[in-house]
């Protein structure tokens, strides 16, 4: 596997994690406010559920956190789910 293939796989995996978190947010009480701490926890939870612990999981967590916009103002979980889908390049 060459470096380009590895990078493409990591990017696709990061997008899948974003969509997983977006689905979680949309399925729950979508009107409730999400915090930055909750954003970080949801990302870490999704990464460890898929990849466990270790260096590859830490690298993926870092990649997903870079792709997922930080929460700088009050947002509902539903609004943030839409933002994550957009960041992943997925449908709204």
Write a structural description.
With 92 residues, this protein is mainly α. It has helices spanning 3-27, 36-51, 55-67, 77-88, and strands at residues 33-34, 75-76. A two-stranded antiparallel ribbon has the order 1-2. Helix 1 crosses helix 2, helix 1 packs across helix 3 (55-67) and helix 1 runs antiparallel to helix 4. It is globular, with a radius of gyration of 13 Å. The chain starts with a helix and ends with a helix.
Keywords, separated by commas or semicolons:
two-stranded antiparallel ribbon, mainly alpha
- The portion of residues assigned to helices is over 70%
Q: Please report which band the strand proportion falls in: under 5%, 5-15%, 15-25%, 25-35%, 35-45% or over 45%.
A: under 5%
Strand numbers in spatial order across the main sheet: 1-2
Number of helices: 4
General form: globular
- pLDDT < 50 runs, ≥5 residues: none
Biggest sheet character: 2 strands, antiparallel
- What is the domain total for the residues? 1
Radius of gyration, in Å, reads 13 Å
Q: How many angstroms separate the termini?
A: 33 Å
- Give average pLDDT, whole number: 86
What structural category characterises the helix and strand content?
mainly alpha
């Amino acid at each position: 596997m060459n470096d380009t293939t590895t990078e493409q796989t990591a990017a696709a995996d990061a997008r899948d994690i974003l969509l997983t978190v977006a689905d979680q947010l949309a399925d729950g009480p979508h009107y409730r406010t999400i915090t930055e701490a909750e954003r970080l926890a949801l990302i870490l939870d999704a990464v460890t559920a898929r990849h466990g612990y270790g260096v590859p999981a830490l690298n993926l967590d870092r990649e997903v956190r870079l792709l997922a916009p930080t929460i700088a103002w009050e947002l509902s979980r539903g609004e943030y789910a839409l933002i994550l889908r957009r960041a992943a390049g997925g449908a709204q």
